[in-house]
Write a structure and sequence with these properties.
The structure is a single chain. The protein is α+β, with helices and mostly antiparallel strands and 177 residues long. It has one domain: PK beta-barrel domain-like (M1 Pyruvate Kinase, Domain 3), CATH 2.40.33.20. It contains 3 helices and 11 strands; from the N terminus they run E-E-E-E-H-E-H-E-E-E-H-E-E-E. It has a 7-stranded mixed barrel with strand order 1-6-5-9-8-7-11. It is globular, with a radius of gyration of 16 Å. The N and C termini lie close together (6 Å).
Length: 177
């Protein structure tokens, strides 16, 4: 990868939802910093992940681009950062560049995109969705719910941190610069 075709962005928002009995997991709330590791984001509770996927490191984090949120807003959905359950909202990284195997370097933190996030009925709990529009929103978000990532090396992230995208092919080259 040459310096001319490097794709760099920034963290626009970091989000978590602590475990609060009786509350749904969406939307997630903003935090200024976030410690991440192989198990995910510190202080973030995901009921489905804990019950059905314990120890699944391929779903440690959920990432969404501002690009994707803007597309959903253009489709008439008032989606805000944190609404889709993401831990990281990225700006400056085009949605079309994300795919399984793509890496993200954020300071000391390295994340590898593992798979797309499928929409689920938890999205019905968003105030602009509900039961009446739930099926419509799920259909709208198929292929547009964000990306799961595994944490290759952990650390602390901050809003505004630079993000370097590392294409899957470049990860196997000896000199990524």
């Amino acid at each position: 990868m040459t310096p001319q075709n490097r794709i760099e962005g920034r963290i626009a928002r970091l989000s978590v939802k602590p475990r609060i009995p009786g509350e749904h997991g969406l939307p997630k709330h903003p935090v200024p910093t976030l410690r991440v590791g192989p198990e995910g984001a510190e202080g973030d509770y995901n009921n489905y992940r804990r019950r059905k996927l314990p120890g699944d490191r391929d779903q440690a984090l959920l990432l969404v681009t501002q690009d994707l949120l803007e597309t959903l807003r253009q489709d008439g959905w008032p989606v805000a950062p944190g609404d889709l359950g993401e831990n990281l909202t990225l700006t400056g990284i085009p949605e079309k560049e994300l795919a399984p195997g793509v890496g993200l370097r954020i300071g000391p933190v390295a994340i590898e995109i593992s798979k797309p996030c499928d929409p689920c009925t938890e999205l019905y709990t968003l105030p602009y969705v509900g039961d009446l529009r739930g099926a419509e929103f799920l259909e709208t978000t198929v292929g547009r719910r964000g990306w799961y990532g595994r944490v290759v090396s952990g650390g602390v992230l901050s809003v505004g941190d630079p993000v370097l995208l590392i294409p899957a092919v470049a990860r196997f080259q000896s000199d990524p610069a």
